[in-house]
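Thread amino acids onto this structure.
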């Protein structure tokens, strides 16, 4: 999953170019489409530092470089931009989890298109793969194990 979307456990999206990684495919595609990456209404704004009033549009934190969108860098406000990036990544991960595990007919599994699973290469055998896939789905739905 970390090849498709940024993750909070390995925040390689923080900092300035060239030390940080470029925008991963999930967020990059949303930005290319002009879609707010974490707010379905498209109106949520962001605040920097201790500002009580969110007054920055989502697209102010992205820019087009080398033919594609990437995180926008601002050396003078690096920590503030990193905070907004973390909020965007956290929201994107929550949206992905809702798409995969939601209990409504909008969830991937409920549509009948598929269900989350663990790659066979990461397990010892098919039995372990099935067990991990079941645990993944149960935990994603909020079941207590």
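Threaded sequence (145 positions):
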């Amino acid at each position: 999953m970390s090849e498709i979307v940024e993750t909070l456990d390995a925040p390689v999206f923080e900092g300035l170019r060239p030390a940080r990684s470029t925008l991963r495919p999930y967020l990059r595609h949303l930005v290319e489409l002009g879609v707010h990456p974490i707010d379905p209404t498209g109106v949520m704004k962001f605040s920097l530092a201790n500002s009580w009033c969110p007054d920055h549009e989502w697209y102010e934190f992205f820019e087009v470089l080398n033919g594609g969108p990437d995180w926008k860098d601002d050396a003078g406000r690096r920590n503030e931009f990193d905070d907004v990036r973390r909020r965007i990544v956290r929201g994107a991960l929550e949206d992905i989890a809702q798409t995969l595990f939601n209990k409504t007919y909008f969830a991937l599994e409920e549509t009948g298109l598929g269900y989350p699973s663990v790659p066979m290469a990461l397990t010892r055998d098919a039995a372990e793969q099935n067990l991990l896939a079941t645990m993944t789905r149960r935990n994603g739905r909020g079941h207590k194990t």
